[in-house]
Amino acid sequence: MHIKVYHKTKIYGLATENGDLFYIGKSCVPEYRLVTHLRSAKNRKSLTQKKIYELKGKVNLVIIEEVKFKGYPHLPNSRELYWIRHYSNIYELTNIQGNPKKYKNQQPC
Fold it and tell me: Residue 11: beta bridge partners?
C-alpha cells in the first residue's frame, strides 16, 4: 500500500462568477475540496453552504498561495489566517461572518 504524504498545501478562495471572494480555505487537493463544498451546499447549514446554494453552484476556485510546509507544520494555518484577514478587508467572507472573533483575534503561529 502506498500512502501519499503531502508537504504542501494550497490556500484557495471560493469566488462568485464576477470574481468576488466569499470564502478562504486550505487543502492539499483544492479541486476535490471544491467538489465537497458543492455537494454540501444543499444542506445550507453554514454561511458558506448558503452562499454556494444561492449562487446555484456557480462558484470559481481561485488558488491564492501554495504553501510548502515540510518541517513547519503550523505554517498552512498561519498562511490561511493571513489571507482571511487580508481579504476580509476587501470582501464579505463567510469565514468572518460566521465567527469574526475566531479570525480577528487569533494570532498566527
Answer: 26, 65
Which residue in 24, 30, 40 sits closest to 88, CA to CA? Answer: 24
**CATH number of the domain that residue 62 is part of:** 3.40.1440.10
Record the cell numbers describing residue 106, joined without a space: 487569533
Give 32's contacts (C-beta < 8 A, 6+ positions apart). none
Three-state secondary structure call for residue 71: coil
The pTM (predicted TM-score) of the whole model is: 0.83
How big is the CA angle at 38 (ends 21 and 55), to the nearest 5 degrees? 55
Examine residue 77 and state whether it is found in any structural domain, yes or no.
yes
Q: Residue 47: give the domain boundaries.
A: 8-104
Q: Over the stretch 36-72, which tens digit does the pLDDT of each residue have? A: 999 999 999 999 999 999 999 999 999 999 999 887 8
